[in-house]
Amino acid sequence: MTIPSPLLELDGVVAGYAAPVVGPVSLTLHHGEVVGLTGPNGSGKTTLVNAVIGTARVLEGRLQKAPGLRVNVQRQHPVRLPEMPFTGTDLLRLVDAGERPVPDSIRPFVERRIDRLSGGQYQLLQVWACLSAPADLVILDEPTTNMDPASKRSLEDLLRASHELVGSILVISHDHAFLERVTSRTARIAA
Amino acid sequence: MDTLFDPLFLTPFINGLLLAVVLALLGPYSRLRGEWLASLGVTQAAGAGLLLGAFIGGSATVGALAAAAFAAVAKTLLGRSGNDGYAVMLLVGWSTALLLAANTARGEDLSHALLEGQLYFTGTQQFWSILTLLVLVVLTITVLSRRLLLGCLLPDRVVGDRRPSARYDLLFDVLVAIGLALAATVVGVMAAFALVFIPAWVAFRVAGNWRSTLMWSLLLGSAAYTVSFALAIIFDQPYGPVLVAALLVVGSGRAIVRAGA
Known about the structure:
- The complex is a heterodimer.
- Helix content of chain A is 27%, strand content 27%.
- By secondary structure, chain A is of the alpha/beta class.
- Chain A has one domain: Rossmann fold.
- The longest helix of chain A has 14 residues.
- The mean pLDDT of chain A is 85.
- By secondary structure, chain B is mostly helical.
- Chain B has a single domain, classed as ABC transporter involved in vitamin B12 uptake, BtuC, CATH 1.10.3470.10.
- Chain B is 80% helix and 1% strand.
- Chain B contains 10 helices and 1 strand.
- The N and C termini of chain B lie far apart (40 Å).
- The model of chain B has no long low-confidence stretch (mean pLDDT 82).
- Chains A and B meet through strand 5 and helix 2 of A and helix 6, strand 1, helix 8 and helix 9 of B.
């Protein structure tokens, strides 16, 4: 199914829970774009993600998603239970990653239990699970968390290699240099 | 030893084995969802329901099933309070069960039955109920497994405006409640809880992936059940406590794996 563009349109969106947390924010994502979103700590970037997936409220403005839009979100702090008897392969099978070849940066640990991976390895696996699963929009929330420079380079390679797999990617990060390297444009949220 | 192979024990043995399979299959999902305490709360509520059913002159089994279903719905409502809510459910069930036992004619017998289990007195009627439950659990897990796992591991997947639906969670909760209620009336409250908790607890430590977690849980639950069934008959002991003891021995394997890890 082809999703009409724009995939996501935010027009003066003020989002929050009982009270406003972020906004107003205006942003449009078209098919095929890799867009960055940055802002200082506490500016409400994650709340904006929550508004997109429906767990925070849009208090003002307009948030329009293309009909049938499939969204995968990689959280800054993905679910990490004390015991998770799953391998990376289990996780990729769960998200319908299909027959896409596992990237070299992930292959060495894809058969290990995910609760025995380092923070950076787990983050990289989670990003690939989001990118390789069927989706029209992938939102990566601070994907460089827990990553050393080598993992960051692997992440950049993943994003470049995945560009054509995913309709559009929204990368949220406070790492401006990283955003400059992997996105075509960056929007900024004020404090 | 001859007693062990008495045909009279065949149907009770099969009934218990099928229940062990049901609970050992539900256990890993329940553990992944962080709901092992909820299982104990639901089981205790089923025990109280059983006594309440007898107290008002109705069917004890229907009382147990109704109370467990009520507890499953209450669990959904208490979801945000987590373990605090489950602990309250457990204490309410325990207190109600003991008060009813103390104030009814059959209460004393039934409370003993809840502690020790009534496995040897089960027959063909229970067999069909348990077999139906097993088929229901296998079918439901086959259909729901992926959704339940995604809900735990990647809860932020969204299709259109829809996130993973809460109705799948409720369906699973009701299934667990029915399984525990039926098991509480057959093997006793604590043995039912132990069958959900311990095989999964060990499997989570030793298994290499999710498929082997399910296999380990089924294997350990069935093996502990079979050994305890034989031991209880050979040594003429109440079944429920022997099963719990056998499962605790199985559980010690987790500590060994941890020490060797």
